[in-house]
C-alpha cells in the first residue's frame, strides 16, 4: 500500500488525482491538509494512516454485513428490490460491473446506510478536546483535555432525527429524502460528506461486494 501511495506525500495538491476505483487514497488526505492550515503527513504518519485504514475497515465490516443480511432476511420485499437493482447492473455490464459502477447503486447504498443507522458499528464516539471551546451563546466552555462523547446509537434512534426509527426503511437515503436528514448527523450515504473515518470506504465497499453477491 505504501508503494501505491509513493510520491503523494510531497506532491503539490493540484497534481494529486483520485480514482473512483481506489479504496483508499493518501492523496485525498494530502489535498485536504494542504488546503487547510494543517501540517502535511510525515512518512511515519502516512504508514500509520494506511494501517488504520485496514484496521478500522475490517473491524466494522463483519458487523455491517451481518446486520444488513439479518435485516434483508426480515424484509424480503426490500431484498427483492435490491436484487432487481443488482441484476440490472450486472446485465448492463456483461456480469462484470466495474467497482465505480457498483459504488453508485442507489438502493444498495441506501440499504447499507439504513443498516448502519439502525446498528452503527460505533455506537459511541469519544474525542478529547485539543483546546478550550465555547459553545455558541450558551456561556458553556468545554475545557482542553475534556472527553466529549457522541451517542451515535441514540442519535440514530431519535424520532426527531429519523421518524419511526425502529423501522428498516432504506428509502430514507434515496434522492430527495436524504435532504431531510440533518447535516450534523454522523451517518449519511457514503457518497456524501460525513464525519471522516479512515475505514469507512473499505467498510462500504466490502458491504457492497457481499450485498451484491448475496442479493
From TrEMBL:
Cofactor(s) annotated in UniProt: heme
Domain of life (superkingdom): Eukaryota
Family matches, as InterPro entries: Cyt_P450, Cyt_P450_E_grp-I, Cyt_P450_sf, Insect_CytP450_Detox
Molecular function via GO: heme binding; iron ion binding; monooxygenase activity; oxidoreductase activity, acting on paired donors, with incorporation or reduction of molecular oxygen
Cellular compartments per GO CC: endoplasmic reticulum membrane
Record's bilayer topology term: Peripheral membrane protein
Family label: Belongs to the cytochrome P450 family.
Name of this chain's protein: Cytochrome P450
Organism the protein comes from: Ornithodoros erraticus
Amino acid at each position: 500500500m505504501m508503494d501505491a501511495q509513493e510520491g503523494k506525500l510531497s506532491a503539490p495538491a493540484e497534481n494529486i488525482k483520485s480514482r473512483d476505483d481506489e479504496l483508499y487514497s493518501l492523496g485525498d488526505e494530502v489535498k485536504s491538509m494542504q488546503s487547510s492550515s494543517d501540517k502535511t503527513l510525515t512518512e511515519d504518519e502516512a504508514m500509520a494512516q494506511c494501517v488504520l485504514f485496514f484496521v478500522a475497515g475490517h473491524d466494522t465490516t463483519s458487523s455491517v454485513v451481518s446486520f444488513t443480511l439479518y435485516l434483508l432476511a426480515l424484509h424480503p420485499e426490500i431484498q427483492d428490490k435490491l436484487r432487481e437493482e443488482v441484476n440490472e447492473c450486472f446485465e448492463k455490464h456483461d456480469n462484470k460491473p466495474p467497482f465505480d459502477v457498483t459504488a453508485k447503486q442507489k438502493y444498495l447504498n441506501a440499504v447499507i446506510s439504513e443498516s448502519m443507522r439502525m446498528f452503527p458499528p460505533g455506537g459511541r464516539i469519544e474525542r478529547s478536546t485539543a483546546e478550550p471551546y465555547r459553545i455558541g451563546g450558551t456561556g458553556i466552555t468545554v475545557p482542553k483535555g475534556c472527553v466529549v462523547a457522541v451517542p451515535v446509537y441514540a442519535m440514530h434512534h431519535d424520532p426527531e432525527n429519523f421518524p419511526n426509527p425502529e423501522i428498516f426503511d432504506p428509502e430514507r437515503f434515496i434522492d430527495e429524502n436524504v435532504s431531510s436528514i440533518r447535516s450534523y448527523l454522523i451517518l449519511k450515504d457514503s457518497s456524501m460528506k460525513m464525519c471522516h473515518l479512515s475505514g469507512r470506504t473499505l467498510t462500504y465497499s466490502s458491504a457492497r461486494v457481499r450485498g451484491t453477491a448475496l442479493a
